[in-house]
Design a protein that fits this description.
heterodimer; A: mainly beta; Sulfite Oxidase, Chain A, domain 2; six-stranded mixed sheet; five-stranded mixed sheet; 11 strands; 29% strand; B: alpha/beta; 2 domains; 32% strand; OxRdtase_Mopterin-bd_sf (chain A); Sulfite oxidase-like oxidoreductase (chain A)
C-alpha cells in the first residue's frame, strides 16, 4: 500500500527544481534555530580571534574588523531542519582575509561562539572564497537572534555550520567535533548529499 | 533540532506509521495517533521526521514533536495547520484514518526532559510550542516527584490545545498559567496581554532553585521568554529552547 494517499507536490518546490537540495523546502522567512538563549554580545566588547595549532594568534576589535576588505555575497542557505532560502544577501569579511599569511599546517578548524557554541569544519571549507564572517544581512546589521553582531557564513554546508555569535576560529591538525556534531549530527553536513545525522 | 537518543544503539530508519485514530485539539490543530510497529521508545521533548510521498515519487519531510511519552508502538503527534504549508495541511485535513505515512526517529537529545534529573521544572510554551512541553508534563504526571509549573501563552481560546488535561494538571500538583494574548474566555480574570517578565517570575521558580527551564514557541516568543528568564537570574545553561519559524510546516 502506498504512503500518504492524496499528497501532492506544491508548485513552489516544483519550480525550485535542481536548485533545492534533496529533502529541503523553500521558505521566504528566516527561521531561527538555537539550543539555548540568545547571547548578548556588545560590539564594544566584541573581538574576533584566529589561533593556529602552534598558538599564533590574531585578533580584531569591531572597528578593526569593519576596516578589513568587505564582500557582499548573495547565496542560497540550507538548514538541516529542511528549510532552504534562496538569494540571501550578506556583507562580511572573507575568512581567507583573516587567515592570509598565517603559517599553519592545520587540516581542520573549530569555530567557537559567544555563549559556548562550537562547530567543526575541514579548513578547506573555510578558504577559497567559500566562507565569510558576516555582520550584515539584507542590508541591515545582523539581528541578534540570527547571530549578531557577527556569524560565520558557510553556505555550502548545512547552516548549523555557520556559527552564530562567532568569536573565533581555532586551526587544528585533527578534527574535533563541535556541539551538534557531538550530539548526533553529521560531522561534515553537505546538504547535497543529505548528510544530516551522524548515522547517515 | 537536537540529538539522537532513545535507549538503543541501532540508527533510526524510516518506519511505516498507520493513523489509527485522531483527535481535534481545536479547529486548526489535530492530534494524530499512529501505530508504529517496533517503535523503540523516546523521551519527552524528542521529535520525529515525518515523510510524505506523492504519486509522482516526490517526497516531503518535516519534523514534528512527539506529544506524549513513550507508550509501546503508539506515537502521538499534534499538528497545527499552517494555511500556506506544504505538509501540515495534509496531516491536518488530508490524511485519512487507516492510511499510512512514514516516520524516522526519535530524534533529539538536548531539548529533552528526563524524569531522573533533579530540580523543579518550568515549562514555557508559546502557541503550538506547547506540544513537546505537554509530552514532558504528561511524563511528569505519571510519577510527579519534583515540582512542575507550566506557563502557556496563546492568542485566543480557539487555539487552546489539551484544554481539559491542562485544567486537570493542578489537581496533580502542577501550577498552570494560561496567558491569553489577544482574546480570553469570559471566565478568565487575566486581561489579554503579552506574557510579562513579572508573570514569568510569579508563576515560575526562583532562580536560586535552579529549575530546569524549557521554552518552546515561535522565535519572537522564545527570544522574549528566554531573555526574561536570564534577567531574572536563571543561568543560560539551565534554559533549553526550541524555536520554530512562521513557515512551511
Amino acid at each position: 500500500m502506498a504512503f500518504s494517499p492524496g499528497f501532492h507536490r506544491r508548485d513552489r518546490e516544483r519550480e525550485a527544481g535542481d536548485r533545492l537540495p534533496p529533502g529541503q523546502y523553500l521558505t521566504e522567512d528566516f527561521p531561527v534555530l538555537s539550543a539555548g538563549p540568545t547571547p548578548r554580545v556588545d560590539e564594544a566588547a566584541w573581538s574576533f580571534t584566529v589561533e593556529t595549532e602552534t598558538g599564533e594568534q590574531r585578533s580584531w576589535s569591531w572597528a578593526e574588523f569593519m576596516d578589513l576588505p568587505q564582500e557582499r555575497p548573495t547565496v542560497d542557505i540550507h538548514c538541516v531542519t529542511r528549510w532552504s532560502k534562496f538569494d540571501t544577501t550578506w556583507q562580511g569579511v572573507r575568512v581567507d582575509t583573516l587567515l592570509d599569511g598565517l603559517d599553519t599546517a592545520a587540516s581542520h578548524a573549530l569555530a567557537y561562539s559567544y555563549g559556548g557554541y562550537t562547530t567543526n569544519l575541514p579548513l578547506q571549507d573555510l578558504i577559497g572564497g567559500k566562507a565569510w564572517i558576516a555582520h550584515t544581512f539584507d542590508g541591515a546589521p545582523l539581528a541578534r537572534e540570527h547571530g549578531g553582531p557577527a556569524r560565520l557564513l558557510v553556505p555550502h554546508l548545512y547552516f548549523w555550520k555557520s556559527a552564530k555569535w562567532v568569536q573565533g576560529i581555532r586551526l587544528l591538525t585533527q578534527d574535533q567535533p563541535g556541539f551538534w556534531e557531538s550530539a548526533g549530527y553529521h560531522d561534515y553536513g553537505d546538504p547535497w548529499r543529505e548528510q544530516r545525522y551522524s548515522w547517515a | 533540532m537536537g540529538v539522537r537518543a532513545g535507549g538503543r544503539t541501532n540508527p533510526p530508519t524510516w518506519q511505516p506509521a498507520e493513523l489509527v485514530a485522531d483527535r481535534w485539539e481545536n479547529q486548526a490543530t489535530r492530534t494524530l495517533i499512529l501505530d508504529v510497529p517496533g517503535w523503540p521508545g523516546h523521551q519527552p521533548g524528542q521529535h520525529v521526521d515525518v515523510r510524505l510521498t506523492a504519486d509522482d515519487g516526490y517526497q516531503a519531510v518535516r519534523s514534528y514533536s512527539l506529544a506524549a511519552p513513550a507508550d509501546g508502538d503508539r506515537v502521538e503527534l499534534t499538528v497545527q495547520r499552517v494555511p500556506d504549508g506544504e505538509v501540515s495541511p495534509y496531516l491536518a485535513d488530508g490524511l485519512p484514518v487507516g492510511a499510512r505515512i512514514e516516520v524516522l526517529g526519535p530524534i533529539g537529545g538536548y531539548f529533552v526532559w528526563r524524569p531522573d534529573e533533579t530540580g523543579s521544572t518550568l515549562l514555557v510554551a508559546g502557541g503550538v510550542g506547547v506540544v513537546p512541553l505537554m509530552a514532558m508534563a504528561r511524563a511528569w504526571r505519571g510519577a510527579p516527584a519534583e515540582p512542575l509549573r507550566m506557563i502557556y501563552s496563546l492568542r485566543s481560546p480557539d487555539l487552546l490545545c489539551y484544554g481539559d488535561e491542562l485544567a486537570a494538571l493542578p489537581s496533580a500538583g502542577a501550577g498552570v498559567l494560561l496567558a491569553y494574548t489577544r482574546e480570553a474566555p469570559a471566565s478568565e480574570a487575566r486581561r489579554p496581554a503579552r506574557l510579562t517578565s513579572a508573570e514569568i517570575a510569579g508563576h515560575g521558580f526562583a532562580a536560586e532553585e535552579a529549575p530546569r527551564c524549557y521554552v518552546c514557541g515561535p522565535t519572537g516568543f522564545v527570544e522574549a521568554a528566554a531573555s526574561a528568564l536570564i534577567d531574572l537570574g536563571h543561568a543560560p545553561a539551565r534554559i533549553r529552547t526550541e524555536r520554530f519559524g512562521p513557515t512551511g510546516g
